[in-house]
Amino acid sequence: MTIPVGWYQVLAAMLFSVGALGFLVRRNALVMFMCVELMLNAVNLSLVTYSRVINDVAGQVTVFFVMVVAAAEVVVGLGILVAIFRRRHTASADDVSLLKG
Amino acid sequence: MFFLMAAVALGSAVGLVLQRNPVHSAMLLVSTLFSVAVLFVLQQAHFLAAVQVIVYAGAIVVLFLFVIMLLGVDRREDLHETLPFQRPLAAGLGVLLLVMVLALGRSTWVTAPVNTDPATGLDHGAGTVEVLGRSLFSRFLFPFEITSLLLTVAVIAAVVLARRQSEGDEVPR
Fold first, then answer.
1. B49, B74, B99: which is the final residue of a domain?
2. Yes or no: domain A28-90 corresponds to CATH 1.10.150.650
3. Domain extent at residue B152
4. Would you say residue B22 lies in a domain?
C-alpha cells in the first residue's frame, strides 16, 4: 500500500505550522530552537516525499545539506544562548531587550 | 504504519509546544524525530533515516540536554505574558499559515517529469546509499565542499562564544 503524496504534504504542513506556532508562543529560547528544528524536519519530510515522487535523488541530497545547516545552526545558537545566560542569567527571549528603543 | 507515525509525530510536536519543562520538550522532540525517521524509511530514504537518528536524536538533542542542564532544569518558565495580545495573535497566524500551506498544496503544480536517468534514480537496482553517494560527490560536489566551510565557521563561532570573557568587558545588568 502506497500512501499518496498529499497525505505526506498535509503532515509536513501541520508539523511546520506547529513549529511556527511554538516559535511565536514560547518565551524560552531553548524551546524556540526546538521549534525551529521541528520546522526544518517538516521541510525535510516534504523534500523526501517529492524525491520519491519524481524518482530523483537530488531531494535527498538537499535533505542532507539541510541537516548540516541545522547542526551548525544549533551549535551557534546554543553558544549564543550560553553566552547570554552567563551575562544576564536568563534564558527568556523577553529579557534580552537591550536594543529596545 | 504511516498513520500511526503521523499521529505520533503530530502529538509529540503539539506536546513539545505545550510542555513547560524543557527536558520534557526535548524528549518529545526525540519522539517526533524518530517518527519522521520511520517515515523516511517508508519512502526509500534509508540512509537519511539513519542520519536523522544519529545526528538529530543522537547529537543535537544531547546538545540541547547539555545546555538545559547547564542552565538549570528546575527553573520553571515564567508564563506571565508581557504582551497581552501575543497569544491570540500567534494562534491566528499559525492557523492562517496552515490554511495557506494547505491551499497551496491543493493547487496544481507543474513539477519536473519523472526522472528516468539510472544515475540519479531511486529504483534502478542500485542501493539508495550508492546513488546518494555518487550524486553527492559528483553533481553536488561544490555545495558539499561549501558545507565543510560552514561547519568550520560554526566550530570557530562556538569556540569564540563559549570562551570565558575577560573581566573587563562584563556588561552591567
1. B74
2. no
3. 127-165
4. yes
> Distance from B166 to chain A by nearest Cα, in Å?
12
- pLDDT, tens digit, 9 for 90 and up, residues B111-131: 667 766 666 666 655 567 888
pLDDT in tens, chain A (101 residues): 577 777 888 888 889 988 988 888 887 888 888 999 999 999 999 999 888 888 888 888 899 899 999 989 988 988 888 888 887 777 677 677 677 66
**Hey, is A44 helix, strand or coil?**
helix
A46 touches chain B (CB under 8 A): no
Write down the pLDDT at residue A44. 93
Selecting from A10, A18, A31 the residue whose C-beta is nearest the C-beta of B13 gives A18
Number of domains observed in the structure of chain B: 2
Residues of chain A positioned with their CB less than 8 A from the CB of B170: 87
Q: pTM, whole model, 2 decimals? A: 0.83
Across the interface, whether the CB atoms of B151 and A68 are under 8 A apart is answered: yes
